[in-house]
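seq as requested:
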Amino acid sequence: MGRVMAIDYGTKRTGIAVTDSNRIIATPLETVASHELLKFLQTYTQKEVVDEFVVGMPKTLSNEDSEIAPLVRKFVENLKKTFPDKTVHLADERFTSSMALQTMIDGGMKKKDRQVKGNVDKISATIILQAFMDTIKR
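struct tokens:
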């Protein structure tokens, strides 16, 4: 069984998280410059088996697409073209950044490390992935 990978796409940076090969644990993987993301994913999937992608879809509080949503949809199109054999799921990513920040505080991460925006992106991707995995288990 291959891994599931979550992607928290941003205009500058993208947070990535993956499951273990047994799909039990979601772990932060990396923060990648968004313009290099597809190349990173191609390299990673040559080394590790990834069966599915979960992409965070930014929504507003009224469940409408946010202003970055069209960019995320365009990325999803490119992802599907690049990996036609992989399933791509969309997941609501509302509140993941604030949840990630709170997780870092609760985990005792130093303020200096919390200010590294890439850390928030990776943890946000992990929250998206864990929520997706919890939904599947039900």
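The chain has a mean pLDDT of 84.
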